[in-house]
Amino acid sequence: MSGTDHSGLMDSIYRHQRHIYDVTRKYYLLGRDRMIDGLNVPAGGSVLELGCGTGRNIVLAARRYPDAYFYGLDISAEMLETAKTAIAREGISGRVTLARGDASDFDAQALFGIEKFDRVFVSYSLSMIPGWEKTVSAALAVLKPEGSLHVVDFGQQERLPRWFRSMLRAWLAKFHVEPRATLRQELEVEAGKRASSVFFETLYRGYAVKAVVGA
């Protein structure tokens, strides 16, 4: 699927859902707040979220790290409209820059006027991105030498009942979401190319996973 096709698909899915997205997703997008707490952004640092959606995570992260600067990228114009509204309502527009783009192929300098970031995070987006492996590579490519990539997403539900796994997978498929069975391996391969460390954690009996690559 091309970037243009995926953009259109995401807009069609979220054109109406974006208005209730955060209310409904808070019950099953688990581990996001734990990831934000673990960003440990340095003073005056820069943070990029790939697949920023409604801006929910950026708003929370901006509260948590009040002297940091945030950048959000999303392929859906519909979601970015919601994000802009949320950020303006929070009064943090001066510290947040949003741009429309493909998380698997983007030019940070052209979009944001900045080439490297202290932190990059991806929250429940890799499971929706065609060619998600390219997103991992792109995220690591825009990190500063002492920077880190933080990921939270659906796991393989390996310690949950089979009926639950089947029900969840069927539900996620309706929204073109597919948990990435090779996520850990991909992170380790890409980290190895950069001599970086990987911390990988399974949450909630395999419902979700959280990973940190780098410092």
TrEMBL record:
Keyword Thylakoid recorded: no
Q: Where is the Methyltransferase domain?
A: 47-147
Keywords, comma-separated and alphabetical? Methyltransferase, Transferase
Record has Nucleotide-binding as a keyword = no
According to its UniProt entry, one GO biological process term is:
methylation
Cross-referenced SUPFAM superfamilies, in alphabetical order? S-adenosyl-L-methionine-dependent methyltransferases
Give this protein's Gene Ontology molecular function annotations: methyltransferase activity
Q: Which CDD domains match?
A: AdoMet_MTases
Q: Name one Pfam family in it.
A: Methyltransf_25
Protein name per the record = SAM-dependent methyltransferase
Recall the taxonomic lineage recorded for the source organism: Bacteria, Pseudomonadati, Pseudomonadota, Alphaproteobacteria, Hyphomicrobiales
